[in-house]
Design goal:
This protein is α/β, with parallel strands linked by helices. 43% of the residues lie in helices and 20% in strands. It has two domains: 127 residues, D-Maltodextrin-Binding Protein, domain 2, CATH 3.40.190.10; 134 residues, Periplasmic binding protein-like II (D-Maltodextrin-Binding Protein, domain 2), CATH 3.40.190.10. Strands 1, 2, 3, 4, 5, 6, 7, 8, 9, 10 and 11 form an eleven-stranded mixed β-sheet that branches.
Length: 299
C-alpha cells in the first residue's frame, strides 16, 4: 500500500514538473516577434517611390517570417499616405506614422523635437520651372533668370509679352504647391527670397496635380518636380534657370540651384522589422526604383 502511495505521489510530481516547464518555456511560435502594420506618411512626391519599393518587398516575401524566421507569420501590411513633407515630420513627432516621407531639408528645430532623429536619403529631386509645350517661350528664350522668375511669380509680370515682346499678350497662369508645403518653402528660399508669391496663384494639392494643371493650360507656369516631369516626358517643358538646364548631372553637382533631398525619417523607436524595410529602401534595389521613377538616386 505504501509502495503504491509513493508511486502515485511520484507521478503527480512528474506531471507538475512537466506543466511547470511548459509554462516557463514559450514555444518557438510564441517567441517570434509580432510586427503589425507599418505606416508611411508625408511627401506626395516621394509616395510613389515608397509605394513601388514596398510593393516589390511584399511581392518578394509575402509574410514577415519569410523576411526573417524570428518574425511572426503575419501578412506584410504597409500603408502609405500623402499630406506633404510637413505632415511627414509631424507624423513622426506625434506617432501617427512609423516613418515620415520628406522632400525638403528637415530643419534643426524639427530634428530637436524628434528623439533619436534619423534620416535616410534616397536621392535628390529638383523643382523645374516648367510650361506647357504649346507655350512657345522656349523658342524665344529657353532660360529665365532668377529676377525674371521673381517678377513672374510675384505677379509683377501679368502677361507673357511683359516678359518678352515676342510672346502673346495672354495672362500668365501661376501654379504652385500649397503655400505652407515643403516644395514651396524650397522655391521661396532658392528663388523668391524676400519677394512674396502672388495671391493669385493656383495651389495644387500634390506635385502630380501641379503638373496636370500645366499640361491642361497652355499659359501655365509652375515649379514641377524633376521626377514627375520625367514621368510625363513630352507633355511638359522644363526651362533653364540662369542658363543652367535641370539635368541629372547639374542637379547632382549643385549647379542647378532649385534642388531638394528625398528623405525618409524616423525616431529612436525603430523595430527590427522596420529597420529591415528601411535598409531595403536605401539598398541598390531601392535606389534603382528612385532612378526608374525619374529622380536622381544617391545617398
Amino acid at each position: 500500500m505504501k509502495r503504491l502511495s509513493m508511486i502515485f505521489l511520484m507521478m503527480i510530481l512528474i506531471v507538475s514538473l512537466a506543466v511547470g516547464c511548459s509554462n516557463s518555456e514559450p514555444t518557438k511560435a510564441e517567441a517570434k516577434e509580432p510586427v503589425g502594420k507599418i505606416v508611411f506618411k508625408g511627401s506626395s512626391t516621394l509616395a510613389p517611390v515608397i509605394t513601388q519599393i514596398t510593393k516589390d518587398f511584399k511581392e518578394k516575401y509575402k509574410t514577415w517570417d519569410q523576411v526573417n524566421e524570428n518574425f511572426a507569420n503575419e501578412d506584410i501590411e504597409i500603408f502609405i499616405t500623402g499630406g506633404g513633407s510637413g505632415a511627414g515630420v509631424k507624423s513622426v513627432i506625434d506617432g501617427s506614422a512609423n516613418v515620415g516621407m520628406v522632400s525638403r531639408p528637415v530643419t534643426e528645430e524639427e530634428q530637436k523635437t524628434i528623439e533619436g532623429y534619423k534620416e535616410y536619403k534616397l536621392g535628390t529631386d529638383a523643382l523645374t520651372i516648367s510650361v506647357n509645350p504649346e507655350n512657345k517661350i522656349y523658342e524665344v528664350k529657353d532660360t529665365l533668370t532668377t529676377e525674371e522668375l521673381k517678377k513672374i511669380f510675384s505677379g509683377e509680370y501679368k502677361y507673357w509679352d511683359e516678359l518678352d515682346a515676342k510672346l502673346a499678350h495672354e495672362e500668365i497662369v501661376l501654379i504652385t504647391r500649397d503655400i505652407g508645403g515643403g516644395a514651396h518653402k524650397v522655391f521661396e528660399e532658392k528663388i523668391m527670397g524676400d519677394s512674396k508669391v502672388s495671391e493669385n496663384v493656383i495651389q495644387a494639392p500634390s506635385m502630380g496635380a501641379l503638373v496636370t494643371k500645366i499640361i491642361e493650360n497652355k499659359n501655365a507656369i509652375g515649379y514641377a518636380s524633376y521626377g514627375v516631369v520625367n514621368q510625363n516626358e513630352g507633355k511638359i517643358m522644363p526651362l533653364k534657370v540662369d542658363g543652367v538646364e535641370p539635368t541629372a548631372e547639374n542637379i547632382k553637382n549643385g549647379s542647378y540651384i532649385i534642388s531638394r533631398p528625398l528623405l525618409v525619417i524616423t525616431n529612436k523607436d525603430v523595430t527590427e522589422s522596420e529597420q529591415v524595410l528601411l535598409d531595403q529602401i536605401v539598398s541598390e534595389e531601392g535606389l534603382k526604383v528612385v532612378e526608374e521613377l525619374g529622380f536622381v538616386p544617391g545617398k
